[in-house]
Amino acid sequence: MLKRKDLLGLIDASKDEITEILDLAEEFKNRIKRGEKKMSYLDGKTVTVLFYENSTRTRTSFEQAAKYLGATTINIVAGNSSVAKGETLVDTGKTLDAQRNDFIVIRHPMGGAPYLLAKTVKAGVLNAGDGMNEHPTQALLDMLTMRETFGSLKGLKVAILGDIKHSRVAKSNLFGLKTMGAEVVMYAPETLIPKGIDQLGAKLCKSKKEALDGADVVMGLRIQLERQQAGAFPSLGEYAANYGVDEAALAYAKPKAIVLHPGPVNRGVELTSGVIDHERSHIEDQVLSGVAVRMAALKLLNDAR
Ligand code: ASP
């Protein structure tokens, strides 16, 4: 049984915790597919979605997840709130606590912000992406999509290509996938590989072929221009040619390999349009997995309260 107040990262999530979330998410995903979108597990609860950074998928899917579970949702966009008047995160948290919010879903450009919030509020806190640190529900939804396809995560070769340095998705996937017994390999320009990631269990590859050879999962990550001070590579065109995945590169992977991308995708940069729209691409299915995983996380955290 999940016994946490908050879901902040996968760095300390156990195999049993991840399995419990994925099992329930799988059930919720099937229920949504059958058109069952009105449940009462979070009746009378309030979920506030507090975003200090842009988002389409994560914000809407957290909101949908809370609504499908019967909760009331409140959406705070930092630019339209007292945050724009200089209110600190801790004071915003205190206000939300005073209003008896049960859960706060936070996205913040600063790594560690959700941890600070979680320490100061009674509400359960869910990290929806903090800077370059973690994005646990994204990795969980990726793992759900992989598990549904292959039956198990154990022994899978997952190749992650793209802007790993600035990616919270890469880190959460690395932590979660290693815990579940998968192999994680990475390939990117050296300027986009964070120092020490190999010590955390990632295998760094010297070529695209080495990374993709025999892979079960090919995951592209967006080039995060908003988090780069200086160009990490000469041009997007050169990046695409040397590090992007096209159909020829996909052929190195296993015949049944699937393609994932957390979105938003830079079409033609990390993946070509042919790969994004390929029959082996599960990018659209990831979105529904996202709603289901966020429902599972909210329900299990609520059960633990
Ligand atoms: N949507 C993901 C995130 O928020 C990936 C990305 O933005 O590239 O981290």
Describe it.
The structure is a single chain. With 305 residues, this protein is α/β, with parallel strands linked by helices. It folds into two domains: 15-132 and 287-304, Aspartate/ornithine carbamoyltransferase (Rossmann fold); 136-282, Aspartate/ornithine carbamoyltransferase (Rossmann fold), CATH 3.40.50. Helix content is 39%, strand content 15%. Strands 7-6-5-8-9 form a five-stranded parallel β-sheet. The protein has a four-stranded parallel β-sheet with strand order 2-1-3-4, with helices on both faces. Strand 1, helix 2 and strand 2 (72-77) form a beta-alpha-beta unit. The radius of gyration is 19 Å and the shape is globular. The protein starts with 14 loop residues before the first helix and ends with a helix.
List keywords for this structure.
single chain, 305 residues, alpha/beta, Rossmann fold, 5-stranded parallel sheet, 9 strands, 15% strand, globular, binds aspartic acid
